[in-house]
Amino acid sequence: TFRRNDMPFGADEKAAFQKQALRAVVSSGAPLKLFEDPEVKILLGMLRTTAPGVIPTAKVVGGRLLDAEAEEVEEKIKKSINGLCANVDFKVCYCGVKYNDLMMMLQAYLLELINVTAENKDGPSQCDHFAEMIDRVEFKYGCFVIYFTTDADGGSKKGRTILGKKRPWLILPSCWAHQFQLILGDYFKVNDAAAIIAEDATGLIAWINNHSKVRVIFNEAQRTIQVSNGIVKIIILAYLVANITRWTTHYVAFVRLFLLREALEFAVLQNRSAIIAAQVGAATSTEAVRLKEDAERFCGLIRDQTFWEGLETVLGDLEPICLGTNINQKDSTRLDQVLLTIAGIYLRFAEHPEKEVRVSMLKRLEKRWKDCDQSVFLLALILNPFEKLSCFGPNANLNQIKCRNMLLMVYRRVRSRPDNEDTPAQRDVKEKAVSKAFMQYLAGTGDFADLNDWEEMSVCFGNTDPIQVWEALVDSAHLAELSKFAVEILSIVANQAGCERTFSRTKIEQSDRRNRLGLAKIDKRLRAEHARQGLVKSREGRKNHKSTTALLSVPRYRDLLEDQDDEDETERGRALVSSAEGWTL
């Protein structure tokens, strides 16, 4: 007879306990030797006296248990991936992307971590590595790679260009999350006044944050204003710092600064001498002179109405760019959504009051659009049943015949894979079926006559997922080929968000205190974590941007913001901009 706390563990209980111990280690990011800690053993022993006898050691957690869990996840991935791969960050890993029939959404799967530290980064070498990755994925998972994404730096871009010539059936987009960050850089390059204001704002934020006595005075000004306004629950807002690798934080930091304008001006008006004294402190001689000059300069900046007016203008320009960045760093942003964000940014700057900024930004946007595989992006928008040709104006010079020709060109290209076993006659039959179905789709006739009813129903239920529409039509024999092709095009994700988050998680796992943790073991831990999370993260939508702006005049463009995930807390980067000199993009 045993007391409840003294019950021994059976074999099944022991296995379940150890498996959960592994999950606890992975979930918490704790070291593998967590359960070897004496205090942890005592804690578990208080719950059940026989627990210390079944607690796994670091060797067991990082060995047998982790291997078994990784194997289990690997089998799940093999069963899940059905051919829609792959989104690649060559520096880190590659992820397969699969359309989940049950959840009706795209999911990113970690397939492999690759150490490329010693590899050449020139175009031909990159191309060879890309080809090896693709071959390995297709062989291992029994799927076929449809698209391949990297950033647009010299080696990666050249490598993709060479790969496209060798394997023309691949869709090879650049990462558009990176592209919108580069557009932010373009803005400051063509607008010298905005760059100066950004430097001043960054310097002001850094000055307040770096001098605690000064910050106390400004915080007290916030408190005084809230009390005078009858606010009972006093909340002192912090001065946010931009992070050059978290791409929307520049905008967020400047918005917060602008929000605190009243408190800053009030503090300088009432306590200018106290602010300067707090800055100088006990310093003497030249150091005291320097500190006083700094305080005088920033107090003067706070009282400068021109600075605040300029900051408000800069915020108006930054908002659509950061909105585009936020939309395009989601794991499931489609190509039609990318195209709408580009159009939104273009329309915003086409109305910019400053001619030099307007002309320069439009020129740079056109250059980035020129580098795209334009037909694929346009086709994605046309194949969206909720858009079709509605977003195109008369100057687009598009008609149904041109759209059909564009569709057939891309279709033939994607279906030109050497492992396509269709005979020429079979390909001809499929092309004719695709062409006929597409013309009916554009005209809204035949099987597409009731598409408007579907649209109304989807809007009513808050769901305008175009892939869901095409999935519903895939069982119709004469629409199957077009439906499958549309799903492939609409499932392409032109960003590296999943890879970047994996990179961040890798850096956390392989920290200075855990620098002997090998890449293979990190790979397994990340896989186990993905399994624990169900391979997706549920997060609340962002509220960073106003709903009314010229950018959102593109049809249904405002809906994209509502579906955005918050920035992942594990996202790469701790490179905080703490001084004006650190303002680099």
From TrEMBL:
- Residue ranges of every copy of the HAT C-terminal dimerisation domain listed in the record: 464-518
**One matching Pfam family, short form?**
Dimer_Tnp_hAT
Q: Write out the GO MF terms.
A: protein dimerization activity
Span list, region Disordered: 562-585
Which residue spans traverse the membrane? none
Q: What is this protein called?
A: Ribonuclease H-like domain-containing protein
Q: Which organism is it from?
A: Mycena alexandri
